[in-house]
From TrEMBL:
Family, per entry: Belongs to the GTP-binding SRP family. SRP54 subfamily.
Gene Ontology annotations for the cellular component aspect, listed alphabetically: signal recognition particle, endoplasmic reticulum targeting
Catalytic activity, as annotated: GTP + H2O = GDP + phosphate + H(+)
The protein's name in its UniProt record: signal-recognition-particle GTPase
The keyword rRNA-binding is assigned to this record: no
Keyword terms of this UniProt record: GTP-binding, Hydrolase, Membrane, Nucleotide-binding, Ribonucleoprotein, RNA-binding, Signal recognition particle, Transmembrane, Transmembrane helix
Region (Disordered), start-end ranges: 403-430
EC id: 3.6.5.4
Taxonomy, superkingdom: Eukaryota
Species this protein is from: Salix brachista
A GO MF label: 7S RNA binding
GO BP: any one term: SRP-dependent cotranslational protein targeting to membrane
Enzyme class per UniProt: hydrolase
Complete-protein stretch covered: 88 to 552 of 716
Length: 465
């Protein structure tokens, strides 16, 4: 699970402050070591870790006593705010050209998910009402062109190709011309991905960039690439080995590309995988360029903006309720989703919503990801997922056995053992199971309400439950 280790590492830091009255230089020493260790183990770049720990430490001993806030919660808040700042604070939106087509140039090493991102991005922009065209500029791998054509077809976007015998800059020029002729809003240009950065690759990219004068140059980075993992990418000509050791490979990569060709941002892929999260936390601080989008799976829908505050929430194990609601929104009818969101906020969440949500969740596919977004469920194993899927089925059966009135007013079931008995019999479950389901719904209401309140108020819920 993404960030799982980081989350538990940080948890052990807060736990050491339980029972303390106030944060002092002495009592934060141990927790600060935990935080440092957790970040390093998550592959966060060393200079970033140093600065982060220093800053958090300084703030922690300076805050003094705040009424009603426990020292461990104070530290969580400081770390949260610092994590958000580290990842760039605000979400960095894609920039669009004021006139003519917007050109997005994608660069990245082979295998990072660049071709997939081309199609995902077109799909994402198409949903926003923009017409898109893909340009196949990876002339070194015929398979890459074929793959782009197939993916383009899948998302309903045309792909401009010239085969492999034309120079990439020439393909780019002709592709752009074609897009202008067709009044296309956004042109997404794929470029060659090699196994390592070399001078020829950079020169070629510079040529393509010169021809296109792109609005965005985005580097696609594989989040799974840790400090040590993967091939040794970066040519020593371009980046010193000792620097790579110090800042980590993904970061060296972003920095190198930025220095060489000038990028406007990065796209992090494979965030659904077993990544330890270091790249997500270091890219902005070290390279100065924001992560704009993240890929979280192999499906065309799995592309989202990068929200630093939500990412911080996930790291702290608070889950990512907003992303969950947003995903659900995409799947469900628009009005249904708005209704659901309002209900979650208002804590009027009933069994109909429960059912809608679980069905939406099922449609969303990957339970792992969704469960990771639910507060308190950050550490899930495959066995737990199967268990959860089974219990969703059981819940569905019981909800289906309720009357429409009972679904809307769970209080009716809470108050009446007869009603619970009827539901139990009709669904072939025990009365105890029905009682548990009802209790669960009320717990969910309280939890959602607390969490939403905390998010709106800018504070954070207690970590102790
Ligand atoms: P390219 O060589 O950079 O063009 O990489 P591809 O787009 O061909 O992707 C390489 C592999 O990674 C393919 O098997 C993709 O299905 C997979 N992949 C791409 N993006 C993601 C992602 O966000 N999550 C996961 N799990 N796999 C991905």
């Amino acid at each position: 699970e993404m960030f799982g280790q980081l989350t538990s590492g940080l948890e052990s830091a807060w736990n050491k402050l339980k029972g303390e009255e106030v944060l002092t230089k002495e009592n934060i020493a141990e927790p600060m070591r935990d935080i440092r260790r957790a970040l390093l183990e998550a592959d966060v770049s060393l200079p970033v870790v140093r600065r982060f720990v220093q800053s958090v430490g300084d703030q922690a001993v300076g805050v003094g006593l705040i009424r009603g806030v426990k020292p461990d919660q104070q530290l969580v808040k400081i770390v949260r705010d610092e994590l958000v700042k580290l990842m760039g604070g605000e979400v960095s939106e894609l920039v669009f050209a004021k006139s003519g087509p917007t050109v997005i140039l994608l660069a990245g090493l082979q295998g990072v998910g660049k071709t997939t991102i081309c199609a995902k991005l077109a799909n994402y922009l198409k949903k926003q009402g923009k017409s898109c065209m893909l340009v196949a500029g990876d002339v070194y791998r015929p398979a890459a062109i074929d793959q782009l054509v197939i993916l383009g077809e899948q998302v309903g976007v045309s792909v401009y190709t010239e085969g492999t015998d034309v120079k990439p800059s020439e393909i780019a020029r002709k592709g752009l011309e074609e897009a202008k002729k067709k009044n296309i809003d956004v042109v997404i240009v794929d470029t060659a991905g090699r196994l390592q950065i070399d001078k020829a690759m950079m020169d070629e990219l510079k040529d393509v960039k010169r021809v296109l004068n792109p609005t965005e140059v985005l580097l696609v980075v594989d989040a799974m690439t840790g400090q040590e993992a993967g091939v040794f990418y970066v040519n020593l000509e371009l980046c010193d080995e000792s620097i790579i050791k110090e800042i980590g490979k993904p970061i060296a990569l972003v920095t190198t590309f930025n220095l060489e060709i000038g990028i406007t941002g990065a796209i992090l892929t494979k965030l659904d995988g077993d990544s330890r999260g270091g790249a997500a936390l270091s890219v902005k601080e070290i390279s100065g360029k924001p992560i704009k989008l993240v890929g979280r799976g192999e499906r065309m829908e799995d592309l989202e903006p990068f929200y630093p505050d939500r990412m911080a929430g996930r790291i702290l194990g608070m889950g990512d309720v907003l992303s969950l609601v947003e995903k659900a929104q995409e799947v469900m009818q628009q009005e249904d989703a708005e209704d659901l969101q309002k209900k979650i906020m208002g804590a009027n969440f009933d069994f109909n919503d429960f059912l809608k949500q679980t069905r939406a969740v099922a449609k969303m596919g990957s339970m792992t990801r969704v469960l990771g977004m639910i507060p308190g469920m950050t550490k899930v194993t495959p066995a737990q997922i199967r268990e959860a899927e089974k219990s969703l089925k059981i819940m569905e059966g019981m909800i289906e056995a309720m009357t429409p009135e009972e679904r809307e007013k769970p209080e009716l079931l809470a108050e009446s053992p007869q009603r619970r008995k009827r539901v139990a019999q009709a669904s072939g479950k025990t009365e105890q199971q029905v009682s548990q389901l009802v209790a669960q719904l009320f717990q969910m209401r309280v939890r959602m309400k607390n969490l939403m309140g905390a998010m709106e108020g800018g504070s954070i819920p207690s970590m102790s439950n």
